Amino acid sequence: MRFFPLRLPATAARRRPPELAYAAGERPPAASLLLLAAQHAGTTMAFIAYVLVAARLAGLDRLGTQAMVAMTLLGMALCTALQAWGGRVGSGALLVHMPNPFMIPFVAALVAAHGPGGVASAALVYGVVALGMAPLVRHLRPLFPPTVVGVVICMGGMALVSTSVRQMLNVGAGQWQVDGASALVGGATLAAIVLLSVWGGRRLRLMALLAAMALGVLIAAALGRLEGGQALAGVPLVDLPRISRPVIRLDAGMLVALCLVAVLSHLDTLGSVIMLDKMDNADWKRADMQAIAGGIKANGIGDLVVGMLGAFPTATCSANIALAYATRSTARVIGLATAALLALVAFLPQLTLALTLIPEPVLGAVGLYAAGFLIVSGMELIVSRAMDSRTIFAVGLSLAAGVALMEMPQLAQQLPEGLRFLLGNPFVVTGILVIALNLLFRLGTAQRASAALDAASPALHADIVSFVEARGAAWGARRSAVQVAALAAVEAAEAIAGGGRHVTGIRGSFDEFNLDLELLHSGAPLPLAGAQAAPPVAADLLEGDDGALDAALAQVSGRLLHHLADRVGSGETDGQSWLRLHFQH
Question: What is the mean pLDDT of residues 115-126?
């Protein structure tokens, strides 16, 4: 039986990583598809707890809470389906949505003031910001390089640690007495996730998270820690979601705070698309800005449509990204199947409520696994770029500020009440600070540079490498691109010297998409053989003169330079000969 026979919009061509069980464009068998979709749906539905927290803070009654939960599930389903579908709307990736935890205080305040329809105000701002950002994301690439995105992702993981550990150990605020039963449940769940993900066979990895959560629930039930089942009796089996009449009322302070949180939330979407793209592309080099724009647009459209009917704003779920990594499955059809299950559950209140009764230690174990995955993924993005002192300060100070606020939340109490929503959140503070510092440290950093070289110096090659590495770090170029560019520049200097010429200088430029180097030299422009030129014949070299040998060496250098650089050229301008190396970035 084949599910989803529709032809999905095409995505960018990529080389499939060998460790994946099911890549983005592949379709798992029906049994595996349902199993994977059930895990993704179950994982993200556990975070319905965020909606319950906001409803509790707002004093919403049971019927109002149930209506918000049902509409939020529909919003999660719509956003997830749009993401998986791709094309003009959506990233074309397995990105599952969950209630956005950073919107809890805003939604609670709006619902407390204006009733269930007040959430429409947050949804309107959230959706409009997304739709405004999506067409501009291509031009915002220099503003959000991998270093900035990596810091936000890393801080998002670090922010999960404290809450997840407290849930696992049943440790409340100001309390340090570990509950043994909770520690057993959470520890067994986390151990099962790791064991099945690392040492399990292909089928076991596909069900790692679901099996681990089931084990945790069974242990909790055996220990008498499974509570709340009696609440299911008063809830109907099937029910239509109740629509709330939208109420649009915002003061200036709330509007500004919502806009900033929306921008950072969509920056998190940017990071999520990058992580899935890296997982699905063995030759990943740079962010796919078209997919990112589609991902942000899908988030905005889904939340705007359903949010106006009373749904809680959503965000991409990091736990589901960790699940995709654990199961080695990034197939887009899994997202469509997950969306179908989420939409179905929206009409089954008993099942929705049952999922919210999953023991906290189990949720804490899932959160801790996701935190570890996010922290390491963020670090990988950070170090993927060459770094100088400016970048080190931007990354270090931003993370330090976030950690300080996590360790000393009382600092936020000194702020005016209107800013506590915004600057009391470590994730938000880190995101704002790393963006600001990245822009600040770019001041005074020229995108073009040059240096004189002494061909007679024994340190010529070291001077060339130092120039390329120093400028690459200042520009924030990819570390791998800088290393290849340095190697190519040294080989170009050798080719120039082999023809009796002398290197006199080096120039470089960078614009986030292109890295260019020019070696200036004496004499006539260096003739370069094309990358497809036929190699010299050994017999001809033995019988020829020195000129034939020099020509052969120049041909070898030309072939090597064409292999290292994306484009190679030579010429003369105003009497100055140059050899140009171009690298796509």
Answer: 88
Q: Specify whether the CB–CB gap between 517 and 468 falls below 8 A.
A: yes
Q: What's the mean pLDDT in 236-249?
A: 82
Q: Per-residue b/e over 479-518, b at no fewer than 16 CB within 10 Å?
A: eebbebbbebbbbbbbbbeebebebbbbbbbbeeeebbbb
What is the dihedral angle through the alpha carbons of 73, 359, 377, 162, rounded to the nearest 10 degrees? 120
What tokens appear for 488 in the block? 């190519």
What is the structure's pLDDT at 1? 47
Question: How many angstroms separate the CA atoms of 246 and 418, rounded?
Answer: 24
Name every residue whose Cβ is closer than 8 Å to that of residue 432 and which is 6 or more positions away in sequence: 260, 264
- Virtual torsion, Cα 201, 205, 209, 212, nearest 10 deg: 0
Q: Which residues contact 203 (CB under 8 A, 6 or more apart)?
A: none
Q: Is 568 strand, coil or helix?
A: strand
Residues 6+ apart with CB under 8 A from 482: 386, 468, 469, 472, 473, 515
Alpha helices in 331-384 (DSSP H): 332-345, 349-355, 360-383
**Joined tokens for residue 559:** 């072939």
Average pLDDT over residues 454-478: 90
* pLDDT tens track for 199-218: 877 667 767 777 888 899 89
pLDDT attached to residue 422? 66
- For residues 403 and 370, which has the higher predicted lDDT (pLDDT)? 403
Would you call 12 helix, strand, or coil by DSSP? coil
pTM (two decimals): 0.68
Output 191-200 pairs: Cβ under 8 A, ≥24 positions apart.
192/216, 193/326, 193/365, 193/366, 193/369, 194/369, 196/326, 197/326, 197/327
pLDDT, residue 501, reads 87
- pLDDT at 95 > cutoff 90: yes
Report how far residue 476's alpha carbon sits from residue 510's, in angstroms, rounded to the nearest whole number: 9
Closest to 191 in 3D by CA, of 368, 37, 381, 423:
368
Among the listed residues 52, 112, 21, the one whose alpha carbon sits nearest the alpha carbon of residue 352: 52
